[in-house]
Specification:
five-stranded parallel sheet, Helicase, Ruva Protein, domain 3, 462 residues, 14% strand, 4 domains, 21 helices, 16 strands, alpha/beta, 49% helix, globular, Rossmann fold
Length: 462
């Protein structure tokens, strides 16, 4: 296990480093130019995907998650302008450079007015291409420097990498972000990563939990106050909007903000000024707001507990954090990361027995990463040997740990659910159900018997 633990720690470090050249998607229906641009960009160590149409570009962007798109203006079916609009809708903040022939420069200028980063004229000059690419990536917040914007996020999950790519795209903009997800999934950590990947990285990052204090205190903490003292002097509390000026303010558990303060927050977002409590004088603020919640804001709006206009102000870009149960491949990596952090803090270095790691990887985690971290800390504190045994993990999980079903169990569960749905649709008509399932009646009856399903039960339900 020691070798496995060492390997996991090495993987954790590699994942934290995450330094790479940018990913560039090139779109042009001229195969020769497409090949030339690809060669030039790859020679500079960029990761390049090349496609010949806007439709292929949109499909590639979902999979490849580019940091920059370079597209021809004139293409069949969907042109570069149409592609630009679609990319802006799906991935706000993604930089797009337009390629244009000399005669279409006015169209390219129009494209830049619509949000394109810039344009290059054909034939494309190599140095101009590289200069534009570097500038676009730098402005977008892409880190080719030593600064590691995602250092605190440990993952090898494709699901999380997709969220990180989305976060990195929006980091270069001032667009407000709404991060949702279950408690303990790392929403504040993700917000910090967006801040570190943004041009605001050298300014403050300030976070406040909107459910952790009384309404008047929350108002004072957010917006500040002017209050007279018994000496007649005026005391000023700046508030977090002013403290985060130039940087990022994270409003955690925004779904729990009282309605009265929602109105005040909306006004601040609309006007970019605040009026401290007890003072009518407006103070200009320059703050990027990231909000987060584990609650369903749509449901809260329906119940009249959250303002719809505020929701749309906050939810310019929505990122949903996956639960730990949806990124199980990260569990061994996170365990190794937590063990290394504990060893650094306390000098106590312990590892898990292989069976214990398997149990951690297959257990149910309603409290997500926060719960996993607490279990690891508890196990290190209570283990009397350098190797943490599986029995101790079982105790930490309440003695009845959840587990992943076997392949056969999962297949049987799916098959039974599938057969039940077909019988419900056909009201227990076996002939019709067999046709829908593309099976003959004899085989279908055998399947029903194997999974203990009786067609008559479904006839009675109608």
């Amino acid at each position: 296990m020691a070798g496995t633990d060492s390997k996991l720690l090495k993987e954790a470090n590699l994942n934290q480093i995450g330094k790479r050249k940018g990913r560039i998607l090139v779109v042009d229906d001229d195969p020769g130019l497409l090949r030339l641009l690809t060669i030039r960009l790859r020679a500079e160590s960029y990761d390049v995907e090349a496609v010949e149409s806007a439709a292929l570009a949109l499909a590639a962007a979902s999979r490849f998650r580019p940091d920059l798109v370079i597209t021809d203006l004139r293409m069949d079916q969907m042109d570069g302008i149409g592609l630009l609009k679609e990319l802006q809708n799906r991935w706000p903040g993604l930089k797009v450079i337009i390629l244009t022939a000399h005669g279409t420069i006015p169209d390219a200028v129009q494209a830049t007015q619509m949000g394109a980063f810039g344009f290059l004229t054909k034939p494309v000059d190599k140095q101009e291409l590289l200069d534009q690419v570097q500038k676009a990536l730098r402005i977008s917040g892409f880190g080719t420097s030593d600064e590691d914007w995602r250092a605190e996020i440990v993952t090898r999950s494709a699901n999380m990498e997709e969220k990180l790519a989305q976060g990195h795209m929006v980091a270069g903009t001032d667009a407000r972000v709404l991060i949702t997800g279950e408690s303990g999934t790392g929403k504040e950590l993700f917000a910090r990563a967006i801040h570190r990947g943004s041009p605001r990285r050298n300014k403050p990052f300030v976070a406040i939990n909107c459910s952790a204090m009384a309404e008047d205190l929350l108002e004072s903490e957010l917006f500040g106050h002017e209050k007279g003292s018994f000496t007649g002097a005026t005391r000023t509390h700046r508030g977090l909007f002013m403290a985060a000026d130039g940087g990022t303010l994270m409003l955690d558990e925004i779904g729990d903000m009282p309605m009265r303060l929602q109105v005040k927050l909306l006004r601040v977002l609309q006007e970019n000024v605040i009026r401290p409590v007890g003072n009518t004088e407006a103070v200009a603020v320059n703050v990027r707001v990231i909000s987060a919640t584990h609650r369903d804001l749509q449901q809260l709006m329906g119940a009249g507990h959250f303002r719809e206009d505020l929701y749309y102000r906050l939810n310019v870009v929505h990122i949903e954090m996956p639960s730990l149960n949806k990124r199980r491949e990260d569990i061994p990596l996170l365990v190794a990361h937590f063990l290394a952090a504990i060893a650094k803090e306390s000098g106590v270095r312990k590892i898990y027995a292989p069976e214990a790691v398997e149990l951690l990887a297959t257990a149910d985690w309603p409290g997500n990463i926060r719960q996993l971290q607490n279990v690891v800390r508890q196990n290190v504190a209570l283990s009397q040997t350098p190797i943490i045994p599986v029995e101790l993990v079982q105790q930490s999980l309440g003695g009845a740990p959840g587990r992943l079903p076997s392949f056969d169990e999962a297949r049987d569960e799916f098959t039974r659910s599938y057969l039940s749905q077909i019988l419900q649709i056909t009201a227990g008509n076996v002939s019709q159900a067999a046709r829908l399932a593309k099976r003959n009646r004899t085989d279908f009856y055998k399947l029903l018997a194997r999974h203990q399903l009786t067609p008559e039960e479904f006839k009675q339900r109608q």
